[in-house]
Design a protein that fits this description.
77% of the residues lie in helices and 0% in strands. By secondary structure, it is mainly α.
Length: 103
C-alpha cells in the first residue's frame, strides 16, 4: 500500500468522477420529478472535488510533474467521466506500465 500524494490522488479521482455523474443525474431528476438530492450530492461532490484539487497540488509538487500534466489532470476533473480516466492513468503509472511523467 502506497502512501504517496499521487496514490491519494488516484484514490479520490474515481469517487470524484462518480459523484459528478450522480450530481448530473440528480439535477435532471430535480427538473423532471419531485426528487431533489442536489443539495446533498452537491456538497458530497464539492468536498471530493476540493480533495482532488488539494491532492493534485501535492502530487504535482512532490512528483515534480510538468504543468501540462497537472493541467490535464485538472481538466479531467471537470469532465463528467474524466475522473475515471485520471484514475486509470495514475494506476498504470503506479504499476509501472507508464513511465512517470516528470518535468
Amino acid at each position: 500500500m502506497q502512501n504517496s500524494a499521487a496514490h491519494r490522488l488516484r484514490l479520490v479521482s474515481g469517487p470524484e468522477g462518480l459523484s459528478f455523474i450522480l450530481l448530473l443525474v440528480c439535477s435532471v431528476l430535480k427538473r423532471t420529478t419531485s426528487f431533489d438530492a442536489v443539495p446533498v450530492m452537491g456538497m458530497v461532490h464539492g468536498m471530493l472535488f476540493l480533495a482532488y484539487v488539494a491532492f493534485l497540488g501535492l502530487a504535482w509538487q512532490k512528483q515534480k510533474w510538468s504543468a501540462k500534466r497537472a493541467l490535464l489532470l485538472l481538466v479531467l476533473s471537470v469532465l463528467p467521466t474524466g475522473g475515471f480516466f485520471a484514475e486509470r492513468m495514475l494506476a498504470k503509472e503506479e504499476r509501472g506500465e507508464l513511465a512517470p511523467a516528470v518535468a
